Amino acid sequence: MLGKLNHVAIAVPDLEKASALYRDTLGAKVSAPQALPEHGVTVVFIELDNTKVELLEPLGEGSPIAGFLSKNPDGGMHHICYEVADIMAARDRLKADGARILGDGKPKIGAHGKPVLFLHPKDFAGTLVELEQV
Amino acid sequence: MLGKLNHVAIAVPDLEKASALYRDTLGAKVSAPQALPEHGVTVVFIELDNTKVELLEPLGEGSPIAGFLSKNPDGGMHHICYEVADIMAARDRLKADGARILGDGKPKIGAHGKPVLFLHPKDFAGTLVELEQV
């Protein structure tokens, strides 16, 4: 069922500082910041040779990463996103196995314009897992 | 400087359970467990199409992930490993930029038999970063 690792998301309190760190100190290819107000984050992509890392900074009121950053003020790895070919088939299999889907269990359009689901960290070794249909 | 994302490591309290989850529920290709007593962990590799995820369970006394699991009893993302071509050049550049290298600052032979360094999470957006020379 799982395809590629689409991205690892790292929540950061200061996107400019984290971008400079990846660009200047680690020598990575770093995108310009992109505001995604409908997702409550501003994102910067770190383009690696085989996948990407996304740096997320809260945007606006009620950002979905605000709680995480209040618990982890330095930032930290927030979620991991795996690609699937068929998100509805993935959802049905997960539900049949008793895994909890966050929200109302229906795929939403994610930050890349593709259908996504988030899985409950308690069911996935303490890790927030995003599935994205590609 | 950064090449591929070599792996994301997830520390888990129960390796058998986490392996079954990735194999049976998420339908991923999962290796047999491999004990690495010199690193204080037992590891299972989740082989994805473009990279891998490593599930780590503490092995023996003083495992380097024991503290993390006592703070995160369900498990969680422990570190992210990036590939570099020249680990000594990477280290010198990082030190020149004021980033802290863990331990004595000398590369060790990591779990894959290659030279590795770990960077201080406080300097890398709250994320424990491993660099591996490939």
TrEMBL record, chains A, B:
GO terms for molecular function: methylmalonyl-CoA epimerase activity. The keyword Endoplasmic reticulum does not apply. Residues 4-134 form the VOC domain. InterPro entries: Glyas_Bleomycin-R_OHBP_Dase (IPR029068), MeMalonyl-CoA_epimerase (IPR017515), MMCE/EMCE_epimerase (IPR051785), VOC_core (IPR037523). Its EC number is 5.1.99.1. Keywords: Isomerase, Metal-binding. The keyword Isomerase applies. Pfam families: Glyoxalase_4 (PF13669). Belongs to the methylmalonyl-CoA epimerase family. This is Methylmalonyl-CoA epimerase. It comes from Nitratireductor kimnyeongensis. The gene is mce.
